[in-house]
Amino acid sequence: MLRVVVLDEVGTIPIPTATVVLRWTDTDQGRRPVRQDVESDGGLVLCVPPDARQATLWAEFGDASSEESVVHIAPGTLHEVELRLRSGSVRTGRLIGEVRDALTDRPVVAAAVSVVGGTAVAETNRQGRFILSGVPVGVHELAVRHLGYATLAHTVAVLRGVTTEVEIGLAPQPVEMAPIVAVATRSRRLEVKGFYERKYWGELIGGATFLTEADIERRRPIFVSHMIADEPGIRLGNCGLRRTNCQLVNIRASSRMAGGCPVKFYLDGTPVRGLGGRRGESIDDLVRPTEIAGIEIYVSASSLAAEFGGSASQCGVVAIWTK
After folding, report:
1. Which pLDDT tens digit goes with each residue over 242-283?
2. Which residue among 55, 161, 259, 294 has its CA within the 20 to 30 Å range from the CA of 185?
3. Domain map (residue ranges) of the chain
4. Secondary structure percentages of the chain, helix, strand, coil, to 5
5. Cβ–Cβ < 8 Å for 20, 36
């Protein structure tokens, strides 16, 4: 078992509803990271998988976060971890990313990632991923080194309370080519709600579609329902004369339901009820495409994230997050 408690900076006041983020960093099983809120007493108890021997975890609460804690796990032992949220006066951000071979696109394991002038060095795991926490706000030079590859130096901006994601392609040393770097700043709201964690694992495992604000801006849909209906297996039903106020149904979920199975909607984490009733209301009446920061579409119940599970979700789920 792993017992976690989240406290204020001086370690005296529990912080209820803070979010604990945990990654199993030494297993080949491809386990999903854990993202779970603590109880009213600031505590949380987690079960450790039998094959796990190391975990990296931290706590988040609004714009505040704790330092990372690395726990080495011994079987049959209760491990206690105390995470203290740093005060808002500490101006830091976090860098996370992935290092791959620019030619083969395979993960580069055990690459050393650091900020020039800083003391912290992160090492990429078996999936080529790394985390650098507590990076001071400002513009820094990110250095990535690995034997057999050309050393990369790239400028990156770190913002207060924001996680910046970096994708790095290292060029093998004998090849005359420039390293490849793609930098994206994540929405803090979606970061806290776990959208990016679910997106990473959903796209890795398959069975779900994730649309970001940039995806929506590229497509410029008139109605939310029309954009969601582009997903294979989902179609519009019970539309008005102008193709508005449409109900969304999953034609794969249940052959026993005439016309398809109505999709369940969540808006900012809350189930939306009453759509498709006598008044013919639809998701288009509640939110416009320009108001949306991210969309999660789960056509198959087997691919559902734990947050959206349950018997009422058998027809699939669409989770919409506003800006």
Report:
1. 445 566 777 666 545 555 688 889 999 999 887 764 455 778
2. 55
3. 2-84, 92-185, 191-322
4. 15, 40, 45
5. yes
